[in-house]
Amino acid sequence: MARATLGSWIDPRPEGIYVPAADAWIDPSQPKPRAIITHGHADHARGGHGAVLATAETLAIMHARYGPQNGQAIAYGETLAVGDVAVRLVPAGHVLGSAQVVMDHAGERVVVSGDYKRRPDPTCPPFEPVPCDVFVTEATFGLPVFRHPDTGAEIDRLLAALHADPARCVLVGAYALGKAQRIIMELRGRGHDAPIFIHGALQRVCDLYRELGVPLGELIPATGLPRQAMAGHVVLAPPSALNDRWSRRLPDPVTAMASGWMRVRQRARQQNIELPLVVSDHADWDELTATLKELAPTEVWVTHGREEALVHWCATHQMRARALDLVGYEDEDD
Fold first, then answer.
1. Which residue has the higher pLDDT, 330 or 56?
2. Whole-angstrom Cα distance, residue 2 to residue 21?
3. Is there a domain that residue 158 lies in?
4. Of 183, 192, 194, 121, whose CA–CA distance to 159 is shortest?
5. CA 314, CA 122: separation in Å to the nearest integer?
């Protein structure tokens, strides 16, 4: 099939991917009449659209963040005709409600994966591989230096730091949507049933996860408690709170950060992180390339990340590839 025609019914633009045959945009960075949203992170889901198609969980997250949405929920695996395009959503494994957009039209299949990871996550269904003609992949960690360690081993490091000095607490920086809840559930999976203390900025999304069926266990608001009440416990907070006045009320905290970027030691040092935890909600280099080998699409479109390295890898593996110049991504970190 000629390169000029493959996926010609998809129109990537700086503000998002436009699908003329459906008259719909995927994850647009500006309000549009009709938007298909892959997941609830702010760099993909914005308010103000005329109509929104997404999973029920993503719509609930958008409602909590932006107010009521004119939304239509679509279950994983359900096919919906949007204009002349057959659209279905399948799990992306990124955060609760995250989805890949599978589109069939003109005898071709295009999959827009959004953000995704391949490792198990107790808060959301795993990534579902879908063979396709064109695969649109992220490249957040699209460099060979990014190879994430075993998640369980990183959680064990956190617990070892917690048990090393019961007079201290371990303060973990984790983003409010997805990462905080995953850290909580990973701790529960390692047998840590003790109360976990949380910053007020995490409360709303944690409550929403519970409403959507994720059993987070006992969570206690950390604000206003005596210092020693949190000694020997895990405290979760947004990264912005790690070094501000709020954290000074904690009992000699071991400052940790859960992010794929903690692989970069300079980032950890700049943020005064004592315990860098490499726990990512994105695929690492090996997982990105393994996914492309598994799917074997005719063409790969690469976006929001380190596009050049992954495009070069595709060329060396006889896959046609190009980078998309989309704007507005990575506003919400890993």
1. 56
2. 20
3. yes
4. 192
5. 31
Please check whether residues 163 and 270 belong to one and the same domain: yes
Q: Which domain holds residue 246?
A: 151-277
- CB of 90 closer than 8 Å to CB of 112: no
121/202 same-domain check: no
Amino acid identity, position 93: G
Nearest to 296 by CA among 147, 176, 137: 137
Question: Which pLDDT does position 6 carry in this prediction?
Answer: 84
Bridge partners for 276 per DSSP: 257
Examine residue 4 and state whether it is found in any structural domain, yes or no.
no
CATH of the domain at 201: 3.40.50
More confident call, 305 vs 212: 212
Bridging pattern class, strands 275-277 and 254-258: parallel
Is residue 225 located within the same domain as residue 289? no
* Ramachandran angles phi, psi of 60, nearest 5°: -65, -40
pLDDT for residue 1 is more than 50 = no
- Average pLDDT (242-248) is 91
Q: What average pLDDT is seen over the chain?
A: 94
pLDDT score of 131 more than 70: yes
Q: Which two tokens stand for residue 209?
A: 């996860």
pLDDT of residue 320 exceeding 60, the answer is yes
Contacts of 76 (CB under 8 A, 6+ apart): 55, 89, 90, 91, 99, 125, 128
**Angle formed by the axes of helices 179-189 and 203-211, nearest 10°:** 60
Q: Output the six-digit token pair for 6.
A: 């493959």
CA gap 181, 314 in Å, rounded = 34
The secondary element (H helix, E strand) that includes residue 85 is strand 85-91
In this predicted structure, what is the pLDDT of residue 305?
A: 78
Distance CA 237, CA 184 (A): 12
* Of 5, 71, 18, 38, the residue nearest 324 (C-alpha): 18
* Residue 327 clears pLDDT 80, i.e. is over it: no
